[in-house]
Amino acid sequence: MTIHSVVIQKLLSTNAHLGRRVTAHHFKIFSEGSRNGLSIIDSDKTLICLRNACNFIGHLARDNARFLFVNTNALFDEIVSQMTQTVGIKNDTTWRLGGFLTNSSSPKKFRGRNKKLNLGAIQAPDCIVIFDTERKSSVIQEADKLQIPIVGLVDSSMPSDTYEKITYPVPANDSVQFVYLFCNLITKTILYEQKRSQAALAGKEDKSRTRDDVQRIDKTATKDKISVLPYENLQPAPEDILETKQLLDKLVVLKFNGSLGTKMGFNGPKSVMEVCGGLTCLDLILNQIESLNSKYGCNIPLLLVNAPNTHDGVLKVLERHTNKNIHSLVQSQRHQRNVSDLPPVSDGIQDDHDGMDSLNLAEVFSSLMDDGKIDVLLSQGKEYILVLNSDNLAHIVDPKILNHLIQNNIEYCVEVMPKSYESEESNLLPNKEEFENLMPKKNLKFTHTMWMNMNFIESLVQRRAAKESLTISKLFDQSFAINVPKSRYLPVEATSDLLLLQSDLYTFTDGILTRNTARGNLADPSIELGPEFETINDFRTRFKSIPSVVGLVSLKVAGDVWFGTGITLKGKVDIHARPGMRIAIPDGTVLENKIITSQGDIGGGSL
After folding, report:
1. Which residues contact 68 (CB under 8 A, 6 or more apart)?
2. What residues contact 312, with CB distance under 8 A and at least 6 apart?
3. Which reaction does it catalyse (predicted)?
4. For residue 511, what pLDDT is reported?
5. What pLDDT is attached to residue 463?
């Protein structure tokens, strides 16, 4: 689903497309006909008008313009009040007085029974935003006389003379949901422009300072942020097979195998743990690379850097992959202690990249250079190296990312995902793609995947000669990042990941992981298994067979729970066995939107 489709769905969810029963002639440019007696507003044109209005508001906010927000609908009062408080604009209500604009030069006096009110002359606003234009035609007439631009919601029954006076009309149903969306966009637009203005002002003040002071200030301002490019903004990979082959021939894949599966009760390297059908994590990664080599006729070598306590297990898997361009080596004794202390990715690490602090990249690449492998790869025309430090079963080699790095001559970048996705409304911000997107590092999840230019390795080794420890964590702090979709990160960190990979949500065709097209939701189900399922043996014992999860949204299991065969899970399922209680899900059971706390709840207790 594209971003445009998501945004249109958001507009439809607010009923923005529902007009009135009457469609004025001048409004037909925004109409897509009628249904059940109601005019249907074209959501695409609503989106275009929304962007135009936000662009205009942003342009005025850049110059500290004065805004006046007009609303007479009591349902919108709290929404408008929160918006004005957030952006720091006074919620002026003088528009409720007739002639407040055209007669603004004359002070007004009002005398009541208990008080006397004096209103001095007001300063005309630079823009008026009206949320219920049909009720405030008098404000529109006054603004038109003074040639003040108006941004307003318009509906299908609005008179022509009123509609013509609105500078930036936004055709939509004035529902509470849409007004909330509209105010949210205005808030984000004004806050963004205010932030830009403050940054520009700070830049002017910094000109009088020394260069060292400026560098120190910039470093402090950006030390907690990283430049992130959305994956969707990348240019598509070449469609021609020959061009794709030439692109992939410039790539090398390097994978670290230093994590043990002890957290999941597996005595051995996590990369050689069986996932499905006798295939291990390492088998699947090797099959992915071999599939690309066969499809495009390219030659992508794989370098495996193993810890001393994982090397033997990795070699046993490689016995099934003979006659392939695979090179396996043991990490040098210089950093053997650090590697043995390196915690698995699934351990409780606050920052996802902190667990990689033990691994000195400069040391690793120095060993490769000493063995002559780097020189050999450069002589073969290799330009980029893909560094993996997790058992990611997604399609790790992406020609689209590789093409972007080569075209822009980027030295190194990391792949990240937001820890909590922002709301879809942010996609409507004007000119979002025109500015550098700096995101706080604390909001990003590092996927343990890094792309690096081969020529950059030499500078890493030089840092080692200078006795500078360079970890992947430090590179994460300094590098450029690509915000990748969730489909590019399928780690094996817990038994809940095995449940997904072994279910009908994924299939293994010729050793390649393929997602089931029957699932319409792009996101995988959220699965939380209790400590009773923590080890692989417990997991296999409690599941006679893996349930069907194609229609599952979320699953939470806690306590002494056992699953039979042929079970289907749909929607949101929560199974919680109290202490001392056992719950057994019978064979062939279908659970859809269920909360189960006892054996008797299996036939009822829907959400």
Report:
1. 92, 95, 125, 127, 128, 129
2. none
3. alpha-D-glucose 1-phosphate + UTP + H(+) = UDP-alpha-D-glucose + diphosphate
4. 59
5. 56
CB atoms within 10 A of CB 411: 15
Q: 3-state SS of 269-314?
A: EHHHCEEECCEEHHHHHHHHHHHHHHHHCCCCCEEEEECCCCHHHH
Ramachandran angles phi, psi of 57, nearest 5°? -65, -40
- Read off the amino acid at residue 318: L
Tokens of 92: 């002026």
Q: How far apart are the first and last CA of the chain?
A: 28
- Per the structure block, which two tokens stand in for 258? 């230093």
Distances (CA, A) of 428 to 51, 55, 80, 192: 7, 10, 19, 13
pLDDT of amino acid 131: 84
Note the pTM of the prediction, 2 decimals. Answer: 0.56
**Which H/E stretch holds residue 460?**
helix 456-465
| C-alpha triplet 32, 35, 36: angle, nearest 5° | 160
CB 486 within 8 A of CB 524: yes
Pick out the chain residues at pLDDT < 50: 105-108, 110, 115-121, 210-211, 214-215, 217-218, 220-221, 333-358, 421-436, 465-466, 604-607
Beta carbons within 8 Å of 37's beta carbon, 6+ residues apart: 21
Q: Which of 207, 216, 66, 74 is nearest to 132 (CA)?
A: 74
